[in-house]
Amino acid sequence: MSTTADEPWDLARAPSLDTATVLEALDDAIAVLGNNGEQRPGQVEMTGAVAAAIADGTTLLCQAGTGVGKSLAYLIPAALAAAAGNRVVIATATLALQDQLVTKDLPLVADALSERLGRPLRTEVLKGRSNYLCRHRWEEQRSQPQLHVSDGAATVTAVEITRRRQLDEINRWAERTRTGDRAELTVEPDRNVWASVSVNSTECVGTDACPQGHRCFAEDARARSARASIVVTNQHLYCIDLFGDGYLFGPHDAVVFDEAHQLEPVITQVAGAELTPAGFTRLAAEARSVGVARSVVDAVADIAPRLTSELEPRRDTLLGAITGDLAIILEAADGRVEQLAAEIRTAGGEGDGKDLDRLRVGRIAAETLTSLRLAADPPHGTVILVDGRSQPRLRLAPLDVGDLLANRLWGERASILTSATLGPHYLKRLGVPADDHTYLAVDSPFDYRSNALLYCARHLPAPTSEMFRALASDELADLVSAAGGRTLALFTSWRALGDTADALEERLSGITVLRQGGGLTNLALLDALSANAATVVCATMSFWQGVDIAGPALSLLSIDRLPFARPNEPLHQARREAAGEDAFMSVDVPHAADLLAQGVGRLIRTMTDRGVVAVLDSRLATARYRSRLLDPLPPMPRTVDRAEAVEFLAGIRDQDPT
Fold first, then answer.
1. What is the dihedral of CA 579, 580, 584, 585, to 10 degrees?
2. Angle 70-83/41-56 helices, nearest 10 degrees?
3. Considering the domain boundaries, does residue 223 fall inside one?
């Protein structure tokens, strides 16, 4: 196991990780931070298990029910290990949880354990490069002719006006920010607006070449994280580093994956590759802007329509191999992109001020070549598929992530994986060594039997029915009215979200209907729900996990349909084929059960919370596999009687009329 201290890991140096001391530290933290001064048995058990895994350098998978306090259970051992001179990385599934750990939870732990730690706890957050303002791109944006909203505004579209105002806000913020982290912005900017003042890892030309490299926000964040003993990041960035050169996080003794049920899809994305028609169009446009010969640029641009025509008929399909016309197109693309890259390498030196842009375009070309050559010679176990929403894309993804982790994670450092929905089946899915791990499941301390109700609208038609959406919207409107707002409505698609939100706006009087993607950030939506009881927030998959709305602000959680993967989703299709005849029960149902449990877990977040989970999909009450979906859920009473659900909600509303 790696360390950053001068000496190897030695428990004699870190007596604070023995079980008695760790649990004493938990008592100290509980006395300061909450739980009403009471220990939660599951939290005690998990804290001891995390400390043992860090001390021994082993792997722990812990399923911790809602309310166990898993953040505290891993933060305390992490803080004690850090105080002993070791480094711990905490990788979350969402930026929201990442920000909560850094701005709230870790400072509270450090303060509560200050005397026991003996020295300040150095913690930092590290996000992907595109989350930080790029000073160079920002300066470029400011130097361009700007649209003045007051001048000829009648001829300017509303979108252009909105984007200009967002840029104005970014410009004011950029003058005073110390971190450049876009999480500081109060309103989430349009994707194109933020792209005009940021770069991703491919577009970045590096600190040595960039004229603003010495003042780079992203590099400052990396430098701070290198000096920190606890670094908080996201799983995506951690896995990029895990399968790369380890530059971002360097040697560390332990890693904690919170919301670890997300680890498999993250690795699937990071370890794969993709090619899109838009990628070739963009590469050609960027090359044209830096003076690459027109014939070379046009040759690359010509790949886009040819690739589109070849992929479009195959959308949402698995490809056994890349053959025929598709192989010919990709082979031609390789030669043309290689020629473009060569032109860029030999261009410049004429004082045209485009050397930096040429370097950036060269990096984009190099990444495209890497993906093309991976497609030409896919690694063993790679699934080749075509998917995409607005435009088809060719993707390569590993079918099984276990082999990828065998030589990179397991046994290399202490690895703690935790989630409220981390069943034993994840041991196989992640390839955890059978002889070198501990599995622990701890129950929630909440009184679900008294404080919650699970309602399934069994009388509604199947979600595939033409009448379902209208009837489900009416059903939800009645439930929201009974609750007086206080609702988080979860959806499995953006279309369902939009249609239902529109219907609720027409049906509900005196209740504000907000929707994800409507201009407010996710955090602002949650703040609005907490600030005003008469509010409904309609959200899609990113709200199914990592969202914490405690107290009377939330008393109704609705789920429009069971979260099964689409039947034609190619990667799931490949895993179904690999599973054979039992695919539905071994692949589809566990996937849906995990997501359903995550969604349901948004409702009861404290000992005193009360509420109703309303599932509008009748299959939860009628399907033969329903027990497999219900078993992972908290032990709530269940009903198919809408009157009972309405009465329960009205009782909560009447107890808290504000």
1. -70
2. 40
3. no
| Residue 575 and residue 632 share a domain | yes
Indicate if 506 and 632 belong to the same structural domain: yes
Domain residue limits at 167 = 133-206
The rounded distance, in Å, linking the Cα atoms of 28 and 128 is 35
- Residue 437 to residue 439: CA distance in whole angstroms: 7
On whether residue 213 sits in a domain, the answer given is: no
- Do 568 and 466 belong together in one domain? yes
Q: How far apart are CA 379 and CA 399, in angstroms?
A: 11
Structure tokens that stand for 226 in this block: 């290198």
pLDDT for position 2: 34
Structurally, the chain folds into a number of domains equal to 4
Task: Answer yes or no: are the C-beta atoms of 225 and 124 closer than 8 Å.
Answer: yes
CATH number of 522's domain: 3.40.50.300
CB 329 within 8 A of CB 277: no
Quickly list DSSP for 286-337. Answer: HHHHTT--HHHHHHHHTHHHHHHHHHGGGTTEEESS--HHHHHHHHHHHHHH
Residue-wise pLDDT for 470-514, tens only, equals 999 999 999 999 999 999 999 999 999 999 999 999 999 999 999
Cβ burial, residue 38 (10 Å; 0-12/13-18/19+)? exposed
Q: Does one domain contain both 512 and 623?
A: yes
User: Same domain for 530 and 645?
Assistant: yes
Those residues whose C-beta lies under 8 Å from the C-beta of residue 293, and which sit 6 or more positions away, are 343
Cα angle 347, 304, 387; round to 5: 130
Contacts of 631 (CB under 8 A, 6+ apart): 593
Q: What is the CATH number of the domain that holds 327?
A: 1.10.275
Please tell me whether residues 602 and 626 are part of one structural domain: yes
DSSP 379: P
Q: What is the reported pLDDT for 658?
A: 57
What pLDDT does residue 540 have? 93
- d(C-alpha 526, C-alpha 547), whole Å: 8
Termini Cα distance of the chain: 54
And the tokens for 577? 């084929």
pLDDT digit string (tens) for 596-653?
998 999 999 888 899 999 999 999 999 999 999 999 899 999 999 999 999 999 999 8
**pTM across the whole model:** 0.84
Residue 220 lies in a domain: no
User: For residue 213, which amino acid is it?
Assistant: G
Q: pLDDT tens digits, residue range 522-562?
A: 888 988 999 999 999 999 988 987 787 888 889 999 999 99
Residue 538 lies in a domain: yes
Residue 290 shares a structural domain with residue 240: no
Q: Do 486 and 632 belong to one domain?
A: yes
Q: How far is CA 226 from CA 87, 89, 199, 236, in A?
A: 10, 11, 22, 18
Using alpha carbons, list the distances in angstroms from residue 58 to 256, 381, 401, 410, 549: 12, 27, 19, 8, 34
Residue 155: which pLDDT band, with cuts at 50, 70 and 90? low
More confident residue, 27 or 144: 27
